[in-house]
Design a protein that fits this description.
Structural class: alpha+beta
Number of helices: 15
Strand order of the largest sheet: 11-12-13
Helix content: 10-25%
Number of strands: 13
Order of helices and strands: HHHEHHHEHEHHEHHEHHHEEHEEEEEE
Number of domains: 3
Radius of gyration: 29 Å
Shape: elongated
Bound molecules: heme C
Largest sheet: 3 strands, antiparallel
Length: 372
C-alpha cells in the first residue's frame, strides 16, 4: 500500500524519466554567468618533432602529405589550410556528421575540432591538446571550482576516461551529452561489489540491491538517481543534493532532513499527536515523533528506512548498520492490516495500530454482575 500522493510535496519525480530528460536542473550557475564558457579556442598545434616522442599521431600527418589539408605538399612550407577547419575534418570523419546531429551536441565540437585535438600529433592520447584530466575543466571553470571546493568528491571524475566516463565530448542522444541515461551510468559503476568510499567503507552494490529488493522508493523507481545525488561532487554526505544526517542518532533539527522534507511533509515528525499526518502512529500517538524528534538521541530515518529499495513495504529495512563497527541490527518489522510490529532488538516486541475505531457510545446493559 502506498501513501496517497498528495502527501508528497514534490511530484516531479513521480512522472519520471520524461520530465528528467527535458527539465533537469538549473544549468547556468552564477559562476557560469560571470565567466562565459569559451565556445572554442586557438591552440598551438605546430607539429611536435619526433625526438620529443609524441604519444599520438594523426594518420594523414604521419603519411607526410601535408597537402591532404594544406595548400602545399612541402613540409617546410605547407601554406594555409584548404578549407574551414571542421569541413576539413568532416571530409574524412564523416561519421561525425551524425554524431554532431544528435539531440545534444557539444558547441566547441560543432565549431572547431582543433579546440581539443591537434591535427598533427600530441603528447596526449587521441591527439588531445591537453591532458584529459584538465582538458574539460579548463573551459568549464564552474565545474572546476566545484570539484576543487567540494568536501565530498566523486572518483567517477578522476578514474578511467574521467569526464568521458559519463559524457560524450562530441554529441549524445541524452541531454547534457550523457553517454547513457544517468541511472544506467550510476548503476553501471555501482553495480559491482567492492567499490570503496574515501574512508575505505565498501559501498552497496546497487544493481544487486535493486534486484533483491522489489519495493523501490518513488524516485528510484523513476530511475532518477539525480533527484538526490550530485554527479560531480558536493558538500553533503554521500554526494546528496541536500542535508541528511550521516549517523544513526542525531538531535532533531528539521534542517538536517532537508533532503527528505523536500518531497515529504515535515509535519509528519513534528507533532506528538496526530490522526492524519502519518500512519506510523499508535492511535493518535505519532511514532515518527517518538523516534525521531528528540533533543539528543533522535533516530534518523535510516534506523528504519532503506532509502533506495527494501523487501518490506514503506521502505522499511531488514537490518540497520549500528554502532562504530556497523554491525547489522535486525529491525524485524511485520506489516499488519491495522499497522505493524517490530520485534526484539531495538526494544521488546511492540506493535502499533493506526486504524481509529470510531467512538460509538457504549450500550448500557443493566447487569447485576459484580464489578471486577
Ligand atoms: C589532417 C589535416 C592536416 C594535415 C595532414 C596537416 N595539417 Fe597542418 N594544420 C592543420 C590544421 C587544421 C591547422 C590549424 C589551422 C588553424 O588553427 O587555423 C594546421 C596548422 C599547421 C601549422 C601552424 C600551427 C599553428 O599553431 O598555427 C603548421 C606549421 C602545420 N600545420 C604544419 C603541417 C605540416 C608540416 C604538415 C605535413 C607534414 C601538416 N601540417 C599536415 C591540418 C593539417
Ligand atoms: C585525409 C583524411 C583525414 C582528415 C582530413 C582528418 N582525419 Fe582524423 N583521422 C584520419 C585517419 C585515417 C585516422 C585514423 C583512423 C583510425 O585509426 O581508425 C584519423 C584519426 C583521428 C583521430 C583519432 C586519433 C586517436 O589516436 O585516437 C582524431 C582525434 C582525429 N582523426 C581528428 C581529426 C581532426 C580534428 C581533423 C580536422 C582537423 C581530422 N582528424 C581530419 C583521417 C583524417
Ligand atoms: C571538447 C573537446 C573535444 C572536441 C571539441 C572534439 N573532440 Fe574528439 N575527442 C575528445 C576526447 C576527450 C576524446 C577521447 C574520448 C575518450 O577517451 O573516450 C576524443 C576522441 C576523438 C576521436 C577518437 C575516438 C572516437 O571517438 O572515434 C576522434 C576520431 C575524434 N575525437 C574526432 C573529433 C572530431 C572530428 C571533432 C570535431 C567535429 C572533435 N573530435 C572534437 C574531445 C573533443
Ligand atoms: C573550448 C572550451 C570547451 C572545452 C575544452 C570543453 N567544453 Fe564543454 N562546453 C563548452 C561550451 C561553450 C558549452 C555550451 C555552454 C552552454 O550551454 O552555454 C559546453 C557545454 C558542455 C556540456 C553541457 C551540454 C548540455 O547540453 O547541457 C557538457 C556536459 C560539457 N560541455 C562537457 C564537456 C566535457 C566532458 C569536456 C571535455 C571532454 C568539455 N565539455 C570540454 C566549451 C567547452
Ligand atoms: C558520474 C557521471 C558524470 C561524470 C564522471 C561527469 N559528469 Fe557532468 N554531468 C553528469 C550528469 C548526470 C549531468 C546532468 C545534470 C545533473 O544531473 O546535475 C551532468 C551535467 C554536466 C554539465 C551541464 C550541467 C552543469 O552542471 O553545468 C556539464 C558542463 C558537465 N556535466 C561537465 C562535466 C565535466 C567537465 C566533467 C569532468 C570533470 C564531468 N561533467 C563528469 C554526470 C557526470
Ligand atoms: C565511472 C564509475 C562511476 C560512475 C559512472 C558513478 N560512480 Fe559513484 N562512485 C564511483 C567510485 C569509484 C566511488 C567510490 C570513491 C568515491 O567515494 O568517490 C563512488 C562513490 C559514490 C558515492 C559515495 C560518495 C561518498 O564518498 O560518500 C555515491 C553516493 C555515488 N558514487 C553515487 C553515484 C551516482 C548517483 C552516480 C550516477 C550519477 C554515480 N555514482 C556514477 C564510481 C562511479
Ligand atoms: C530519495 C533520495 C535518493 C535517491 C533517489 C537515490 N539515493 Fe542513493 N542515497 C541516498 C541516501 C539518503 C543515501 C545515504 C544512505 C544512508 O547512509 O543511510 C544514499 C547512498 C547512496 C550510496 C552509498 C551507499 C552505501 O553503501 O553507503 C550510493 C552508491 C548511492 N546512494 C547510489 C545511488 C544510485 C545509483 C541511485 C539511483 C539508482 C540512487 N542512489 C538514488 C538517497 C538517494
Ligand atoms: C525527490 C523526491 C523524494 C525525496 C527527496 C524523498 N522521497 Fe521518499 N518518496 C518519494 C516518492 C515519489 C515516494 C512514493 C510515494 C508513494 O508511493 O506514495 C516516496 C515514498 C517514501 C516512503 C514510503 C511511503 C509508503 O508509504 O510506502 C518512505 C518511507 C520514504 N519515501 C522515505 C523517504 C526518506 C527517509 C527520504 C530522505 C532520505 C525521502 N523519502 C526522500 C519521493 C521522495
Ligand atoms: C523507528 C522507525 C522509523 C523511523 C526512525 C522513521 N520511520 Fe518513517 N515509517 C516507519 C514505519 C513503520 C512506517 C510505516 C507506517 C505504516 O503504514 O504502517 C513509516 C512510514 C513512513 C512514510 C510513509 C507515510 C507515513 O508517514 O505513513 C514516510 C514518508 C516516512 N515514513 C518517512 C520517514 C522519514 C522522512 C523519516 C526520518 C525523518 C522516518 N520516516 C523515520 C518507521 C520509521
Amino acid at each position: 500500500m502506498h501513501s496517497p500522493l498528495h502527501q508528497l510535496k514534490r511530484l516531479g519525480t513521480v512522472a519520471g524519466l520524461g520530465l528528467f530528460l527535458f527539465n533537469v536542473m538549473p544549468l547556468a550557475s552564477a559562476a557560469d554567468a560571470a565567466t562565459p564558457i569559451p565556445k572554442m579556442r586557438k591552440n598551438d598545434v605546430t607539429p611536435i618533432p619526433d625526438y620529443m616522442k609524441p604519444v599520438s599521431a594523426h594518420a594523414p600527418f604521419q603519411d607526410g602529405d601535408c597537402s591532404l589539408c594544406h595548400q602545399r605538399k612541402d613540409a617546410k612550407d605547407p601554406g594555409p589550410i584548404n578549407k574551414q577547419i571542421n569541413l576539413l575534418c568532416l571530409d574524412c570523419h564523416d561519421d561525425f556528421v551524425k554524431i554532431l546531429a544528435r539531440k545534444s551536441s557539444h558547441e566547441p565540437a560543432r565549431i572547431n575540432c582543433v579546440s581539443c585535438h591537434s591535427p598533427h600529433n600530441s603528447m596526449y592520447p587521441h591527439l588531445l591538446v591537453e591532458d584529459p584530466g584538465t582538458l574539460c575543466l579548463s573551459c568549464h571553470t564552474s565545474i572546476s571550482n566545484l570539484v576543487a571546493n567540494a568536501s565530498v568528491k566523486h572518483d567517477a571524475l578522476t578514474t578511467g576516461a574521467k569526464c568521458a566516463n559519463c559524457h560524450n565530448p562530441h554529441g549524445a542522444n541524452v541531454q547534457h551529452l550523457l553517454n547513457k541515461l544517468p541511472y544506467d551510468l550510476c548503476v553501471g559503476c555501482h553495480g559491482v561489489d567492492g567499490v570503496k568510499d574515501h574512508d575505505g567503507k565498501t559501498l552497496t552494490n546497487m544493481k544487486q540491491l535493486l534486484a533483491d529488493n522489489l519495493h523501490q522508493h518513488g524516485p528510484v523507481e523513476s530511475k532518477d538517481c539525480s533527484a538526490c545525488h550530485l554527479p560531480h561532487g558536493g558538500d553533503h554526505f554521500r554526494l546528496l543534493t541536500k542535508d541528511y544526517p550521516a549517523t544513526f542518532y542525531s538531535p532533531y533539527d528539521p534542517k538536517l532532513y532537508d533532503l527528505c522534507f523536500d518531497c515529504h511533509e515535515e509535519s509528519m515528525v513534528k507533532d506528538a499527536k496526530t490522526t492524519t499526518l502519518t500512519k506510523f502512529r499508535n492511535g493518535d500517538q505519532n511514532l515518527h515523533f517518538v523516534h525521531v524528534n528528540k533533543d539528543e538521541r533522535g533516530r534518523t530515518c535510516r534506523a528504519c528506512h532503506e532509502v533506495h529499495a527494501s523487501k518490506q513495504p514503506h521502505q522499511i529495512r531488514d537490518a540497520v548498520p549500528y554502532g562504530h563497527t556497523g554491525y547489522l541490527l535486525k529491525v524485524n518489522f511485520t506489516k499488519t492490516d491495522t499497522g505493524g510490529q517490530c520485534a526484539e532488538t531495538c526494544h521488546v516486541t511492540r506493535s502499533y495500530t493506526n486504524v481509529i475505531v470510531p467512538l460509538i457510545p457504549p450500550t448500557v446493559v443493566a447487569t447485576n454482575a459484580p464489578a471486577k
